[in-house]
Amino acid sequence: MAKNTSTNPNGATAAKDRKLAQAERKAAKILDDARREAERTRRQAETEAARIRAEAEEHARRLVLDARASADGVRAEGMDLVSHLRQMGDALRSNAERLLDDIQTIHSRMVGELERVDPAEGEQAAPAPEPDDHSSADDEEELLDVPDFVARG
Questions:
Q1: 109-118 confidence digits (pLDDT tens)
Q2: DSSP annotation string for 5-19
Q3: Measured distance CA(75)–CA(106) in Å, rounded
Q4: What is the DSSP letter of 132?
Q5: Domain assignments of the chain as residue spans, ordered by start
Q6: What are 119-145's pLDDT values in tens digits?
Q7: φ, ψ dihedrals at 79, nearest 5°
Q8: 99, 147 in Cβ contact below 8 A?
Q9: What are the C-alpha distances in Å from 48 to residues 36, 58, 61, 62?
Q10: Residue 5's pLDDT is what?
Q11: DSSP labels, 44-109
């Protein structure tokens, strides 16, 4: 009689079931490993993101502090400039007033001298007044002196 080489259908099913169970265990292990790796990667990413965020916040904080310091410096320099411009304006105003007074004094003196001259005869009607004790040639020179801000020559 011939030998039956076919496998027992129950035995084949059991082997398939074992292989299926083994494949499912491997798949579950791979899935579990993947989940652990994903969780580890997520934690690393969160840690790195928190570190980068903290660095960015610190950098932004330093930039704001630098900007405030720069703004304060610019403001202080601006205030100094305004103060210096006011002082210069006051000095110019004072010089202009002195110059105007000097011009008015000289004008009055010249008009007085012209009034003393008789235009018909071309002679002086009266001699020019002598300077009083308080006047001197130096005072007249000072009255006619060129201000410091005008170039001589």
A1: 998 888 888 5
A2: -SPPHHHHHHHHHHH
A3: 46
A4: -
A5: 16-126+137-143
A6: 644 455 555 555 555 555 455 555 556
A7: -65, -40
A8: yes
A9: 18, 15, 20, 21
A10: 46
A11: HHHHHHHHHHHHHHHHHHHHHHHHHHHHHHHHHHHHHHHHHHHHHHHHHHHHHHHHHHHHHHHHHH
